[in-house]
Design goal:
Blueprint (H helix, E strand, L loop, with lengths): L8 H29 L3 H10 L2 H16 L2 H24 L5 H29 L5 H30 L3 H18 L18 H14 L1 H31 L3 H30 L1 H21 L3 H29 L5 H13 L1 H15 L3 H16 L6
Helix pairs in contact: 1-5, 1-6, 1-7, 2-5, 2-9, 2-14, 3-5, 3-8, 3-13, 4-5, 4-7, 5-13, 6-10, 6-12, 8-13, 9-10, 9-12, 9-13, 9-14, 9-15, 10-11, 10-12, 11-12, 11-15, 14-15
């Protein structure tokens, strides 16, 4: 079923795209700032780890809250708060007060707020598009985000840095405010009616219910296991990609920007391919195929010491990464009972994203031994994740 841009989806899409544009400026600039503050790979990786750790601490709570509150208000309120934080960080960078500790604090604070925002966004989408159009809506959201983030924002980072180190963060702060305004103006066409909560229901019991719902569904359970393994792998890779590019390949900041752009080009193509591939193979087979291709791409990335190999591998990795993400998100939305999507999706995210900080620290330790070791570690983990899905293919 085709996705209709009217009825709220257009503004939700625009908000996601604007926010991703700013986020991509910040996430691409932070590692480059970190390597100017320290040459310790483990400390550099810790910045990424702090950007995912809050999911372990607050992810389940964020999902339960998302089922209780007005998702729109939660989202625009969180974006305004994140905009204020990033604006303050931009001022600190401009005044020369940046430090590794400040980077760690910023990453942790932004993701803590993001646990509520992301769960609210997942819960809000089914209220603005029909169930039959969820896969297409997820694909369009992810494709738009990659276009804005990877193809527009990342190549712009070196230009902004020429103007001053604070510029990527200042633009990110503005993007949060614009995204908040778009969400605040959104009016879902048919808000989902929430069933009444049982007497005595608490946030604690509701978070436990989300875990039970996830565990009882065999397909969601195994997709969750596989995605958790890939999250550890991705944490190891992204936390040390700047070291891999600048140290092992000697490609500098331009090579790093080119690698991120290649990933985004592939991710955009993956958004265009995801729906068609799922129609041909089914969602689980599409995830299995994506994992197998990503494993091969990581092996090439970790063994071929050429910039062209890094660019080609990351493009392929990004393509199949979007295919995986679209199917994974749609499966959770399709298979979760009404009124429980926030806490069930938060359980899924907490168990999967929670492995990323561990992967970041493992990657940092591995990079201290050899700069290409994190990519090879990621390949092993992706291979295990793909193998774990073999039993779910009918």
């Amino acid at each position: 079923m085709a996705v209709r841009w009217r009825g709220g989806f257009g503004r939700l899409w625009a908000s996601a795209v604007v926010s991703r544009f700013g986020d991509s400026l910040r996430t691409a600039a932070l590692p480059l700032l970190a390597v100017t503050l320290t040459d310790d790979p483990l400390l550099i990786a810790a910045v990424t780890a702090c950007g995912f750790l809050p999911w372990l601490l607050f992810g389940l709570l964020g999902g339960a809250v998302a089922d209780r509150v007005d998702q729109r208000r939660a989202m625009w309120g969180v974006d305004l708060a994140r905009g204020a934080l990033v604006a303050g960080f931009a001022v600190a960078v401009a005044l020369g007060h940046a430090s590794i500790v400040l980077l760690l604090v910023l990453a942790f604070a932004l993701t803590t707020l993001g646990t509520l925002f992301d769960n609210a966004a997942t819960t809000l989408l089914p209220t603005v598009v029909p169930t039959e159009a969820l896969a297409g809506a997820n694909a369009r959201l992810m494709t738009g985000q990659q276009l804005a983030g990877g193809l527009l924002a990342v190549p712009l980072v070196p230009v902004l840095l020429l103007w001053g180190a604070a510029w990527p963060y200042a633009v990110d702060a503005v993007s949060y405010v614009l995204a908040a305004l778009l969400i605040a103006s959104l009016r879902p066409a048919a808000p989902a009616k929430r069933p009444p909560r049982p007497a005595g229901s608490t946030l604690r019991t509701e978070t436990a219910d989300g875990l039970r719902t996830l565990w009882r569904d065999r397909v969601l359970r195994w997709v969750c296991v596989a995605t958790a393994l890939t999250s550890v792998a991705i944490g190891a890779l992204i936390a040390t990609l700047v070291v891999h590019t600048t140290d092992w390949l000697g490609a500098g900041s331009r090579g790093y920007a080119a690698a991120l752009t290649a990933y985004s080009v592939g991710a955009v193509a993956g958004g265009l391919l995801a729906g068609r591939l799922a129609e041909l193979t089914g969602r689980i087979r599409a995830v299995f195929l994506a994992g197998a291709v990503q494993t091969a791409a990581l092996l090439a990335l970790g063994t071929i010491r050429e910039l062209w190999a890094l660019i080609a591998a990351l493009a392929l990795f990004g393509l199949m990464g979007t295919v995986w993400s679209v199917q994974e998100t749609t499966l959770v939305q399709e298979r979760t009972p009404p009124g429980a999507l926030g806490r069930t999706s938060s359980a899924f995210r907490t168990l999967t994203v929670g492995g990323t900080p561990l992967g970041a620290l493992l990657g940092g330790a591995a990079a201290g031994w050899a700069p290409n070791a994190p990519a090879l570690l990621a390949a092993v983990l992706f291979g295990l994740a793909t193998a774990s899905l073999a039993g779910q293919i009918n």
